[in-house]
Amino acid sequence: MSDCFLPRLGGIEVQVDELARAQLSVGHDVSIATATPCRTGVPPAEGALTAGDPYAPGRPVAERPPVDRLVTPMPWDLPVGRSIRPVLAERKPDVVHVHAGAVSPFAWRAVRQARQAAVPVVLTVHSLWGPVSRGVYRALFAGWAQTADGLVVTAVSEAAAAPIRRVVAGRLPVRVVANGIDTSRWHDFACAPMRLRTAPDADDPLHVVAVGRLAPRKEPMNLLRLLREVGAVVPIRATIVGDGPARARMERYLRRHRMTGWVRLTGRLDRSAIRVVLAHADVFVAPAARESFGLAALEARLAGLPVVAQAGSGVADFVESGREGLLGRTFPELTAALLRLTGDHRLRHRITAHNRATEPVRCTWPAVLEDFDRCYEAASAKTPLAHL
């Protein structure tokens, strides 16, 4: 169950799709329910289940699970959604796995309705809760904790788990299960020659890449400030992949500070095109402090790139400062980290070699599927919660 799903694009949408397909591949019987329409502005008929939806628009893909789109027509296709009770009655699930962000009305209603139907629930929180979210959910979890049997809560990183643990205050266990990634897609990168240079210069400057939605939560303006400060010291060029509401403001900033000649905004690219961008990059930057996981940073790490990111974000679960990249807690520390990588080519090459030679095991699908299987068993009361 997820408010948002394909064809809408985002971290949760992609992760739910790939999790479902990975589970299908090992023999689970999986279906998806979502409040996202298959095409913008075209919800399914009221009361209808849409099993067999091939993730329209697009052609059917055999290994994809059926999708029930419980859409309520709303302005801007807001994913409010309808009751999941028809899905529970038809599918008769052994367990409901709910995926929630900071504000997920469909997901939270799904938790309540599944528990009312005595169906075990695993709730995965994909966002990093701030003070407002913590206040809203404190009362909700206090009520759930009175009947905690059949409910297991997970978060995608230690950073995301910390505020949830403060909210539940020991009344419920909170387990960290990482987002998963298919590392086989990156094996070609591990075999390709590394892009090694002794130092950036005017003819071949260091190539810095960032990938993500251009929205305030991702701090795109801080990214531009970071590039501007580093670019004033050493020659660099930058590629920023993604789209979103902050793009127009970013374009104005680039023009105002005369950065358009060396900073390129590509807009949204598919994942194969992103791999091409990463293959020609030297460093990946993820400046957002409120990054709950950082799937784009994980992909960059698998491509071999040193990652510069916030020490308190979810990226820190798979990037240790000095091993897979450099982490900082403040804007000056992030600036210093990127500057260090531009000048210390031995460090950059050592991190690249390490990233290509090692896998983030906790993020591989076999590990993620095993972790979730344990959660499903616990929610179904087959395993004591204490064993998590």
UniProtKB/TrEMBL annotation:
Q: Which domain of life is it from?
A: Bacteria
Glycosyltransferase subfamily 4-like N-terminal domain residues are 10-185
Residue span, Glycosyl transferase family domain: 203-354
**Keywords carried by this UniProt record:** Glycosyltransferase, Transferase
InterPro entries, alphabetized:
Glyco_trans_1, Glyco_trans_4-like_N, Glycosyltransferase_grp1
What Pfam families does the record point to?
Answer: Glyco_transf_4 (PF13439), Glycos_transf_1 (PF00534)
Q: Does the keyword Nucleus apply?
A: no
PANTHER family to which the protein is assigned, alphabetical: SULFOQUINOVOSYL TRANSFERASE SQD2 (PTHR45947)
Q: What protein name applies here?
A: Glycosyltransferase family 1 protein
Q: Which species is this record about?
A: Actinomadura fulvescens
Q: What is the lineage of its organism?
A: Bacteria, Bacillati, Actinomycetota, Actinomycetes, Streptosporangiales
